[in-house]
Amino acid sequence: MPDDVLQQTYNFALAYHQQDHTGHDFEHIQRVYVNICKLLEQEPLADSFICKMSALLHDVDDHKLNTDGNVAKRFLQSLKIKESVAQQILETIDAISFSKSGAHPKFKTLEMKLLSDADKLDAMGAIGICRALIYGAAKERPLFNATVFPDSQNNQARTYSINHFFDKLLRLKGAMQTKTGQQLAEERHQFMIQFLHQFFSEQELTDWHNYLDDYLNKL
Ligand code: ADP
Ligand code: NI
């Protein structure tokens, strides 16, 4: 029975996210699903159905997708599952966004911790770099301006894709909730740092190397 429901939910998410270019394409959903399955292997106390359903539905109501905020709720009501289970899935999804829960989140349930780690891992490492650059390109944002540092008072700072690493990507490691999540995050975090150093080296930007080192020391 849960397998049928999972399959139905998988098909729904596939159809829903197919056309997306904001970083919430179905490949993202699939990777988050794989991540949460990996995390579940080390967390036998977590409810795997809640985790998997939440992973499949976690971005259907993302504000960047212009929804009315009730897409997941309506879909869950159409399924043959208990209302309390549907409610738990909705609460799990609702808890995890970086903008709401911040760089040092405190979650009520183990399922929230797993979903948060699974989603955040996909915003890190090589994939995280690609997603940030794709997102910036979709918004027609410039990649980088060597004269505008991320913490400057200049409002322009947020519009450069490379600055987004300092706003969010480099802070994700510190938000990891599970031991496995922390381990997987470490390699991805180091890779992003290596990428940025290389990016700055190729342009001989000593002040940006220093800026990055200072930033990391203060994390
Ligand atoms: P998530 O599904 O990981 O919660 P978001 O909705 O915050 O992610 O963003 C989707 C993807 O787009 C992420 O990989 C994120 O890093 C990237 N992204 C979000 N905002 C920006 C931005 N201002 N510049 C570049 N990339 C961004
Ligand atoms: Ni996501």
- Can you tell me the residue ranges where pLDDT is under 50 for at least 5 consecutive residues? none
Number of strands: 0
Report the mean per-residue pLDDT as an integer.
93
Gyration radius over CA = 18 Å
Query: Gap between N and C termini, in Å?
Result: 45 Å
Secondary structure blueprint with pairings:
Elements lengths: L1 H16 L8 H16 L6 H10 L13 H7 L5 H13 L2 H4 L8 H12 L3 H14 L22 H7 L11 H23 L4 H13 L1
Helix pairs in contact: 1-3, 2-3, 2-7, 3-5, 3-7, 4-5, 5-7, 7-10, 8-9, 8-10, 10-11
The structure holds adenosine-5'-diphosphate (ADP) and nickel (II) ion.
Adenosine-5'-diphosphate binds next to helix 8 and helix 9.
How would you explain this protein's 3D organization?
The radius of gyration is 18 Å and the shape is globular. The protein starts with a helix and ends with a helix. With 219 residues, it is mainly alpha-helical. The protein has eleven helices and no strands.
What are the salient characteristics of this protein?
219 residues; mainly alpha; globular; binds adenosine-5'-diphosphate; binds nickel (II) ion
Short recap of the structure:
With 219 residues, the protein is an all-alpha fold.
